Amino acid sequence: MRIVGGNFGGRRFSPPANIPARPTTEMAREGLFNILSNFIDFEELTTLELFGGTGSVTYELASRGARDLTLVERDPTSIDFIKKTAKMLGIDDRLNVVRGDAFKFMKQSTRQYDLIFADPPYALANMDDLPLLVFEQKMLVPDGIFVLEHTTSKDYKQHSNFTRTKNYGTTIFTFFTQPSE
Fold first, then answer.
1. What is the pTM (predicted TM-score) of this model?
2. What is the pLDDT of residue 94?
């Protein structure tokens, strides 16, 4: 695993083989951050990564200057790796790692974020609930962005907050935006 951009660009990490995650590929992450950089200034962002896995998207956000990082993951091996990597990068003081279920976290959260990224297991039966919860729970600030990673079997173009999709092979990023008030 390699961080593709920002202050930590080029740094490599090797997650343990027993992490039950499918990390977003370097090519897809690079494309995602190229798109995001056209819409947001990463510095001072408040971010949330759901289904954190290896933490790769959070490291990219931190590398680009995001200051308030929250990551939700339920696997203890993944959490240990994320915390160890955050300490090596020197970002452990701005990273809040939450061990638990992403859906429960979303239903109980009272915070708002500038950017939310979710990379759930592709076979997750209730994946369609993620965009619904983000907007029902008012988890985004005005003009905030929610990015959902999924496969071509899903299509969210009819969602009222849909803005665009970007395809990287079998990886699809769908972007949703919270309207300005």
1. 0.95
2. 96
